[in-house]
Amino acid sequence: MTTYAVTGATGRFGQRAIKYLAAKVPASDIVALARNTDKAKKLLPTDITIRQADYNDAEQFTKALQGVDRLLFISSVPGGPVPRAQQHANVLAAAERAGVSFIAYTSFPHADQAEVALAADHKATEKAIAASGIKHSFLRNNWYLENELSRLQAAAAGKDFLYAAGDAKVGWALEREYAKAAANVLAATDTKDVYEFAGPARTYRELAAAIAGDFEIKSLSDADYQAALIAGGMPAKLAGFAAGGMQLIASGILTEDTTDLPDVLGHELTPLPEAIQEVLK
C-alpha cells in the first residue's frame, strides 16, 4: 500500500488536487495536511485522513508525515511572519525525518535559471530537495488564468482591457488543470524530475481577443497602467504591486514552449474562450 499526502490541503489548489487524487487512488490512502483541521473536515472528503501540519512547525510536520510515501508539497503563501524559505525548509526536514520517498513540489517556471525575486524561494527549495536525495518532480507551474480575473471581469462588463506587458507571452491554463496534473504526477510510478507546466504561450492581446463582449484593448506604459489602476479605485500600493507584476511578465519570464501539461493530463487543455467563461462563472 502506498500512502499519499498533500500539504496546504484547504487551499484551492490543495482541495482540487485531493479531489483528483481520490479519483485515482483509494481515499483511505490519502492524507490531507492542514493547519486548520476543523476547516479541512468541512471542505474535504470524509473518507480521507486529515492531520494537522503547520508550515511553521517542523516537529508537528514530522509527526504528520509518519507513514507517508509520496508527498505533494504545495508551496506556501509568502508574506507571513515566518519567511517562506524557512517554511519550506521545515517541510523538507520533516519529509527527510519521516522517510518520505517522493516529493512533487509546486514551483516556478524555469526556477533554476530565473533571476527574478518571485523565483528565489522556489530556486532554493528545488536545490534543497535535490540535495536531500529524495526522488522528486518539480512542477513548475506557469500562470493560472484565474490570476486575470479582475481584467476578464472588466472586459466582460464592457470596460477597457488594460495591460502593460507589451508582446510578452504567458502560458495561461486553469488552476484545476495544474492541480489535476499534480495529482497525476503524485499517483504515477514513472515520473520526470522536472515538468514545465503551461498552456500555449499567448500575448495579452490574444487573451483579450478570446473574451466575449464589446470593449477596448489598451496596451499602456508602466506609468500609465499604474495611473489607470489608481484612477479606477485601486489603492496606490496595490497598483504599484500590479504594475510590478506586469513588468516581470514583460521581461518574458512566463514565455513557454512545452507540452508537459497536456501530456500529463492525457488530453488537450480547455480552449481559451471556454476557460475564460469558466473563470467568469
In short:
With 281 residues, the chain is of the alpha/beta class. 44% of the residues lie in helices and 15% in strands.
List keywords for this structure.
281 residues, alpha/beta, Rossmann fold, UDP-galactose 4-epimerase, domain 1, seven-stranded parallel β-sheet, two-stranded parallel ribbon, globular
Give an overview of the whole structure:
The chain is an alpha/beta fold. The strands form 3 sheets. Strands 3-2-1-4-5-6-9 form a 7-stranded parallel sheet, with helices on both faces. A two-stranded parallel sheet has the order 7-11. Helix 1 (12-22) crosses helix 7 (175-187), helix 4 packs parallel to helix 5 and helix 9 packs antiparallel against helix 10. It has 2 domains: 4-141, NAD(P)-binding Rossmann-like Domain (Rossmann fold, 3-Layer(aba) Sandwich); 142-173 and 197-256 and 270-281, UDP-galactose 4-epimerase, domain 1 (Alpha-Beta Complex). It has helices at residues 12-22, 37-43, 58-64, 84-98, 117-132, 149-156, 175-187, 204-209, 222-231, 236-250, 260-265, 272-280, and strands at residues 4-6, 30-34, 49-52, 70-73, 102-107, 135-141, 161-163, 169-170, 194-197, 202-203, 217-219. The protein is globular and about 55 Å long. It is built from 12 helices and 11 strands.
